[in-house]
Amino acid sequence: MTPHDPVVCIDLDRTVIYSAAALDLRVPDADAPRLLCVELYRGAPLSFMTEPAATSLRALRDIATVVPTTTRTLDQLARVHMPGPPARYAIAGNGGLLLVDGVPDPDWTAAVRARLTGCAPLAEVESHLRARGGTFVLTLRTASDLFCYAVVDRAALPDGWVDQLAAWCAPRGWTVSLQGRKVYAVPLPLTKSAAAAEVVDRCGGGPLLAAGDSLLDADLLTVADAAIRPAHGELADAGFTLDHLSVTRSSGVLAGEELLEWLRVRTLRASGSDVLAG
């Protein structure tokens, strides 16, 4: 890549890679696309993308700096093997970790830690979440010593519980997001958009494209020059729209295929001041 080439930040889970439960293939088995396994967990296949999606991703990586951008921890991210060589940059821990050639950048880590000093400590939020839990909380975990999340039984989750947690967290500088079976509590300054801006700076200031499906992706999609989200997920449920945001026609794993091809085509259009119009 050369200076000013586009940077493309792509969320992973339910944006470009999908578990078997999230595939949402609404076609006869005989018409289903061929799937490529991109993640193993305990020796079993866990996440997939379609073969056309893999082709679009390889082509996209030839014309842009593609940055996997995820809330996953380092260990969780290390299980994912996308098509092509390892990415030069990757963002983990919802922006708390910037990987350069697979190694967390210490300067970025220190800068993030400094920004978090104005928020309540992780231990305080984790303790409150543990105390407010019940049998509907299946697991409570911390991630990268940055934020915490609870895996919950959605059917048993009490009405209003997430809203009450959010109301408690807000004055302490934390935000709450429900994504599938996970309830995330994340410090407000911990954002994917800040890490994406750092990558853009390091790459010479080119245009930023982005894709994501969850509320934790909203800030990233907002700051991008052009963005796309799937027709499913938290942002779809919330009716999230922006003037520069496109939405896939498909849902499930076919949305991942569609949005990667959209990013490839839109990146090819990038030129000068007419960055990504049309």
Write the layout of secondary structure elements.
Blueprint (H helix, E strand, L loop, with lengths): L6 E4 L7 E2 L15 E7 L2 E7 H11 L3 E4 L5 H5 L10 E4 L4 E4 L2 E2 L1 H10 L6 H10 L5 E7 L3 E6 L8 H9 L4 E6 L2 E6 L4 H11 L5 E4 L6 H6 L2 E4 L4 H4 L7 E3 L5 H17 L9
Helix pairs in contact: 1-9
How would you sum up this structure, described in words?
With 278 residues, this protein is of the alpha/beta class. Helices cover 30% and strands 25% of the residues. The protein has 2 domains: 7-113 and 190-269, 3-Layer(aba) Sandwich (Rossmann fold); 120-187, Hypothetical Protein Ta0175, Chain: A, domain 2. It has 9 helices and 15 strands. The protein is globular and about 50 Å long. Residues 271-278 have low confidence and may be disordered.
The order of strands across the largest sheet is 5-1-13-14-15
Q: Radius of gyration, Cα only, in angstroms?
A: 18 Å
Our estimate of the beta-strand percent is: 25-35%
Overall geometry:
globular
CATH class of the largest domain, named: Alpha Beta
Task: State the end-to-end CA separation.
Answer: 24 Å
CATH T-level fold name of the largest domain:
Rossmann fold
Task: Quickly count the helices.
Answer: 9
**Which runs of at least 5 residues are low in confidence (pLDDT < 50)?**
271-278
